[in-house]
Specification:
The chain has 534 residues and is an alpha+beta fold. The chain is 28% helix and 26% strand.
């Protein structure tokens, strides 16, 4: 049989066993009569064969921090607020000493007392650049708050931070637009060691000197500065032999102005390594870091976006436009997926890498730019050079070429990456199943770190949804099957099937490329590429 524990101003004032349905309000005809900020017939709790339900009547109700309308099922452990009161639903089998102890810890934020443990320091990063070491911290738009936020989407008294057993907790104060930790909406949650707090539409990254996540030791890695104000800091994590060897080489190259080509499969973190090279340069680290995905640039606009154009250079060029090279002047330009850049634009890169000179489209004079160029691709450039889709002379211009190991080559880093992603995204402490590390290490991870990252975020959501505090192998259903177990065809099988279909269609179309392309629903260029693959 469940029970209700009622709190007022941080103190438990009533315990009620839920034997039957009951009503709550300020009127004397209710089963539970409450006076502070409660309407005459505020809400009722219904006990049915299907379970326990909280039903709104005249007043506002918040369950686990979310405002509800109509009815909402309740389960043991749920917290709901009405007026100035907080109600905790527990199993009545819990002894009296247990729930009284739980009452005090649950309402520490209202009492304003710390229940043991050292008070850590919390650092709010850009745009605030403030740090606090207090057992209680109020946040809102009101000048009376400890941390005043001047933003219309922040409530006057939006949220509060408090310390419990040496850990910072964030509690929403029935704000209008909600309180979030790493995009998870919270009512009262412990804070991970670092992450982002969002109040309505305003957000700020933070770091705590000690970690509240039980079972997770501090993650060692290379912290990178946020690229934009308010963005969350990212970290390069890895201690395996292949990755350590790579980082030792990059550390030597980072302070130089040499051009660098990063080769590796998709999802291995080439963008993070490019940012690392930029942040470790003594002069360029404070200048722009411009990242461009060449695969997203239309071929007809590649030169314009990279090198800029003058007004009237072509139809639609109504103003002068700076290209990416000029935008990165003094800093670093990172060109990702360079293998997708048209050959004509690749030719123009030659002079820039060699001499640092560009000429915007429509300009009559050259322009000198001071830019360090870092390029990356997941393509096999040996094959691309042989096929003529990547210039041999451009390939020879790179001062340094590094191969980034895939996750399969650095399986020893998977447990460390798992704990790092947990520290970033878990809104509450989670323990790890004993078999989880080995299960993750035996998985193929064709999408590399990016796939692992998505899988961990999904697993956190699944674990919290079922009310578990343990991350289990079953929370990673899709990623634990190797390619043969999934029944997916291999790359070789797909290529062979494509060749057979192409040969059959070419034969039926008497070798006509245009007709074959229409039959297969692809472009003539794609047909030519497929023929070269044969």
């Amino acid at each position: 049989m469940p029970s209700l524990i009622l709190f007022y101003k941080g103190e438990p004032i009533l315990r009620e066993n839920l034997v039957s349905s009951l009503t709550i309000g300020s009127s004397e005809d209710n089963d539970i009569c409450l006076l502070d900020s409660v309407t005459p017939h505020h809400a009722r709790i219904e006990i049915t064969e299907k379970g326990t339900f909280l039903v709104t009547q005249e007043g506002q109700l918040f369950v686990n921090g979310e405002r509800i309308a109509g009815s909402r099922p309740l389960k043991p452990g749920d917290l709901f607020d009405l007026g100035a009161y907080r109600v905790h639903l527990i199993e009545s089998s819990a002894p009296e000493a247990f729930w009284k102890k739980t009452d005090k810890t649950l309402t520490v934020s209202l009492q304003g007392k710390e229940k043991g443990g050292a008070i850590p320091v919390i650092h709010f990063l850009d745009p605030l650049q403030k740090k606090f070491r207090k057992p209680h911290l109020s946040i809102g738009r009101s000048p009376a708050c400890d941390l005043v936020i001047h933003n219309s989407y922040v409530s006057s008294e939006h949220a509060e931070l408090f310390v419990r057993d040496g850990t910072y907790y964030l509690r929403d104060l029935h704000s209008r637009n909600g309180t979030f930790v790493n995009d998870y909406r919270v009512t009262e949650r412990p804070l991970p060691r670092n992450g982002t707090i969002r109040l309505g539409r305003w957000s700020v990254p933070y770091e705590i000197e000690t970690s509240p996540v039980e079972g997770l030791k501090d993650i060692e890695g290379i912290s990178l500065p946020p690229l934009t104000s308010g963005a969350q800091r990212r970290m390069i994590v890895g201690q395996s032999a292949p990755f350590t060897k790579l980082m030792q080489k990059l550390k030597k190259v980072a302070p130089t102005d040499d051009s660098v080509l990063l080769l590796g499969e998709t999802g291995v973190g080439k963008d993070l390594l490019a940012q690392y090279l930029h942040s470790e340069h003594p002069k360029r680290r404070s200048r722009p870091f411009v990242a461009v995905n060449c695969a997203t640039i239309p071929a007809t606009l590649a030169d314009s976006q990279l090198f800029g154009h003058m007004r009237g250079a072509f139809t639609g060029a109504v103003t002068d436009q700076k290209g990416y090279f000029e935008q990165a002047h003094g800093g670093t330009l990172f060109l990702d997926e360079i293998g997708d850049l048209p050959l004509e634009s690749q030719a123009r890169l030659l002079r820039i890498i060699e001499d640092g000179i560009i000429r915007p489209i429509g300009a009559t004079r050259d322009l000198k730019v001071d830019v360090r160029v870092i390029l990356a691709t997941n393509r096999n450039l040996d094959t691309s050079r042989h096929e003529g889709t990547f210039r041999e002379d451009l390939y020879q211009r790179f001062d340094w070429i590094f191969h980034i190991p895939s996750l399969k080559e650095r399986r020893d880093d998977i447990p460390l990456l798992l704990r790092y992603f947990l520290s970033q995204h878990s809104p509450e402490p989670l323990t790890l199943h004993p078999d989880l590390d080995s299960a993750l290490q035996s998985s193929p991870w064709p999408g590399n770190i990016r796939q692992l990252h998505r899988a961990v975020r999904r697993a956190i959501t699944l674990a919290l949804a079922r009310g578990s505090s343990t991350l289990e192998p079953e929370d990673f259903p899709e990623d634990f099957k190797n390619e043969n177990e999934k029944g997916n065809p291999s790359t070789r099988e797909i290529r062979q099937s494509k060749r057979r279909k192409l040969a059959q269609t070419l034969k039926s179309c008497d070798g006509n490329i245009s007709k074959t392309a229409r039959e297969l629903g692809v472009s003539r260029v794609t047909i030519h590429n497929w023929i070269r693959e044969r």
